[in-house]
Amino acid sequence: LAPACTRDSTAERRVATIVAAVRRDGDRALLRYARQFDPLDGPVEVTQAEMRAAAARVPRAVRAAIRAAARNIRVVARRQLPRGWRTRVAPGVKVEQRIIPLDRVGCYVPGGRYPLPSSLLMTAVPAAAAGVGEVIVVCPRPEPVVMAAAIEARVTRMFRVGGAHAVAALAYGTRTVPRV
Q: Count of H helices and E strands in the chain?
């Protein structure tokens, strides 16, 4: 029952080329690939105002379900947070563990055949609950329901890019997409 483990060296070379181009050329490569693969035809960044306007077009019952899901995920995520501690191991000797959230994280939300607000909620909500300062989302075609989830998840910024070029932009940063 073990899955077949195959490697596609052609795909690996193509991805490596894309990642290297984004690392080297930043936004110029990111936008070239976004226009080719996503297909990006407008601004790369989704503004908060655009997210709110798109979310308002989502049926009320769907927005309520997203809000409930975000609340439930947040409750569980907060419960899962590790706690710091301090102990005295000998007179004058104290040991402490501090839990410090990351400053910024990136979340990848696929934009294939169907919108996946669940992918956004299950990645962005735990990050926000952990105290991460900035939650950056990349999604090649963010539908209104995904933007509604972004509002509920308290996403800081969202970009209309996907694929290897989006992951490379998050990993290395560009002038437009901050490094996470």
A: 7, 6
